[in-house]
Amino acid sequence: MNIQEIAKLAGVSISTVSKVMNGKDKDIGEETREKVMRIVEENHYMPYAKFREKERIVNHFIGLIIKRKNPYYTELIDSIEDALKKNDFYLIVYTVDYEKKEIERALDALKKRGVSGVLIDSSCVICSNREERPIVYLAYGEDFENEQKNTFYFRNYEAGRRAAEKLLKAGHQRIGCLLSESDRVFLKGVKSVYREQHYPKEAVTSYLGKSMEDVIENGLEICINDNQSAVIAGNAEIIGCILRYAEQIGMKIPEECSLLCAKDDDILNYLLGGVTAVSYPVRRMGEEAVTHLLKMIIEKQESEIVRGFESMMQERNTVRDISRKGTFGKIAVVGSMNMDSIIEGVLIPLAGETVIAKNLLILPGGKGANQAVGVGKLGGEAYMIGRLGRDVEGRIIYKSLADNGVHMEGIEFDECAASGKAFVHIDKNGENAIVVYQGANENLDEIQLKRHEDIFKDAKYCLLSSEISRAAMIAAKEICRTTGTEIICKPSAIEKIEEEILLGIEYLVPNEKEMNHIFPERKMSMEEKAEKLLKLGVKNIIVTLGKSGAYLKNEKYSMYFEGNPFMAIDTTGGADAFISAMAVALSERKELIYAIIYASYAAGITVTRYGVQEAMPDKKMMRIYQEDIEKEYLKKMEEYKNEKNTGAW
Length: 649
Ligand code: RIB
What we know:
nine-stranded mixed beta sheet; six-stranded parallel beta sheet; 24 helices; 25 strands; elongated; binds alpha-D-ribofuranose
């Protein structure tokens, strides 16, 4: 609409319109003047600024200055435009990068175009030194400045916290966050929740991708692996990449890894039967900001409103609650934690002999800690209960446990005793002899166990080993009896194991030497000793036989398992790997026969490398042998059926 058209509509000359608009209207009649003004306003004619000011005529254009990287860019513009249209207003958009100067330049440009008000996407006050006109701020990131009034906001930080709380409540103690660079504040929120709940920093592994290529090339492997039970993706595109990657590595979502999206999107309704996501009332925020701005413009009101909007959780199907998995999944571990000095030589010295070591390694160990790490690596939920010294070794052992997803609340630091130590001699065949200095392990007592009784309450299994005091073993056994937790016990470092300890143990896992310690009678065969243990009330006796396999005795079976083809270089911790893998398989409701075969493979893999915790396999490694394990299990069951028919078992 131009000045000629306005003149035509008003039925006056161009000079009359010009006079009215320039305030030189003394000789113009009141009626004509009002008519011109009405037509100017109805047609949104943009008059000269001076005139507008004088006559308070509202220009129907609104400016929006929005950051290019605003994650809600399209949604915000859409909602603002829709709300403006409803009120007969129009939008002029300026997209800027993060620089305050650039925003100021855009603001000046908008003012020159005569907009009536401006919406600015910014967390700080923008001071333009020109004329004043209403400004409403939109903020979504971190805190905005105190003097920033007329602000409509939601906080990504709060949304990050909401996502983290959701995952923690569902039992996800270690998570991956595969986000984009603009989600930095969201990530801060996630981390704050885990930190407040005293999780180690490793509990949240994150990657902020610069682009989708970067996410795919570098982020996927870091954030999605067996160490994490859940992953938060920055947006629907990243969800797509994760689904493809999970398919490639054979990971089932959400069975093996829960999924949550940091930003809702319609498409998430159709993936995997619905991907759980955090959503923001972006539309509502845009609409309310527009309503407020127009009110300021039309009613010429001063205002100081600051209005926050909360994020919401769109509950769909990809976050599994693993917190109650406890009835079967949770595994309490009561045992020793040591710093191992592994001395590799040709021979293990006999009394009076001195030998030269070929190599020396110092690594975290201890039967309890090894078993807990073994469980953690295989994706089980291990809760370690034990005692460390407040020393360097203690910190290293603690870190190794935390790094492998072990729950740490049952670990206490002893102010007086040093951390336990083990001196492990390995000969050229990989056989070992171990001397243990108990240190702080010895001070694990009934009181500490009672303090952590809650851990046992919903634990199906307790791994109990004997490098702790006899009193602690008895106390742990007693707690397990009251909570119905089944004990899997390794009877090492015990001269003569007492009936009091054995009675009612569900799974006893000795090696041959330990069997001979329990029953030194030479004339008894191993089967007879196992039979005797059964009669003493041990429900399942599983004797580990090194490279010869294992032997199982219970009410139903008396069964030998073949050894597997792994080349042992260090047999230390083979039994710990066996026990943790067996416990994980049982906690996944696998049959005992299957669990023993699975455990033999885990032990076999462990002894092919030095040390214990690092040498133990994780889930990924075990997947390589999955088919062999299953085949062996079926073969074993077939043999059992046949033998049973002939009465041989
Ligand atoms: O089972 C192996 C473990 O026994 C070693 O790590 C050592 O610390 C001892 O406890």
